[in-house]
């Protein structure tokens, strides 16, 4: 299994927020205390996205139940859980019904680490929705590494089409709105004094 970036739950919520409409990502839960970690993720999603966050188990869901659950409402955050015992036919069904899963709100696929192979083999279209956005759940409160800081700065720059220098210039001239992403950007640049 490839190495996936380990992220605190709050960072995972931030990534969903910046990805825009129809965001998908996968989170590989920890081998122990998975229920606690899932609760933490749900809390962070509600807090950061300012939307409800529901958990829906794929193991017990029928096609109709899943489709209805994702569309009623269609703008909240939904965490789909896939345990180690999710049968191959469920993965295939999920892949076949991918069009019915399209929605405005974000979808997080919460899996055990060894489920990545099943996702890739049995649900390649869902895997393509997720792309490279597969993360290992990490304990919250960790300090960002320099590489993580640079990655986040690059994400913000790409999303807003602005450079770090432009953000600082706008903040210095008081032209920058006090939005959470801009505050985060300034803090990551070490310019919290401009907030």
Helix content class: 40-55%
CATH architectural label of the largest domain: 3-Layer(aba) Sandwich
Strand content: 15-25%
Number of E-type strands = 6
Q: Based on Cα principal axes, name the global outline.
A: elongated
CATH fold description of the largest domain: Rossmann fold
Give the ordered list of helices and strands. Answer: EHEHEHEHEHHEHHH
In the sheet with the most strands, the strands line up as 1-6-2-5-4-3
How big is the Rg?
18 Å
The assigned structural class equals alpha/beta
Question: What is the name of the CATH class of the largest domain?
Answer: Alpha Beta
**Quaternary form:** single chain
Gap from first CA to last CA: 42 Å
Structure explained in plain terms:
By secondary structure, this protein is of the alpha/beta class. It contains nine helices and six strands; from the N terminus they run βαβαβαβαβααβααα. The chain has two domains: 5-138, Rossmann fold, CATH 3.40.50; 146-190, no CATH class. It has a six-stranded parallel beta sheet with strand order 1-6-2-5-4-3, sandwiched between helices. α1 (9-18) packs across α2 (34-49). The longest helix has 16 residues, at 34-49. The protein is elongated.
């Amino acid at each position: 299994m490839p190495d996936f970036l380990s992220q605190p739950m709050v960072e995972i919520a931030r990534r969903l927020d910046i990805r825009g409409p129809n965001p998908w990502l996968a989170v590989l839960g920890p081998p122990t205390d998975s229920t606690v970690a899932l609760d933490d993720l749900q809390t962070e999603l509600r807090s950061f996205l300012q939307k409800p966050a529901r958990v829906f188990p794929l193991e017990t869901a029928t096609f109709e139940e899943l489709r209805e659950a994702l569309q009623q409402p269609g703008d909240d955050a939904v965490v789909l859980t896939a345990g180690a015992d999710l049968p191959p036919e469920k993965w295939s069904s999920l892949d076949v019904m991918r069009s019915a899963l399209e929605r405005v709100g974000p979808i997080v696929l919460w899996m055990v680490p060894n489920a990545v192979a099943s996702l890739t083999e049995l649900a390649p279209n869902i895997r393509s929705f997720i792309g490279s956005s597969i993360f290992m759940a990490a304990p919250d409160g960790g300090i960002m590494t320099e590489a993580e800081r640079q990655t986040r700065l690059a994400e913000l720059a790409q999303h807003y089409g602005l450079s770090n220098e432009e953000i600082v210039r706008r903040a210095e001239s008081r032209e920058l709105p006090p939005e959470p992403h801009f505050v985060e950007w300034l803090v990551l640049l070490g310019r919290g004094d401009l907030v």
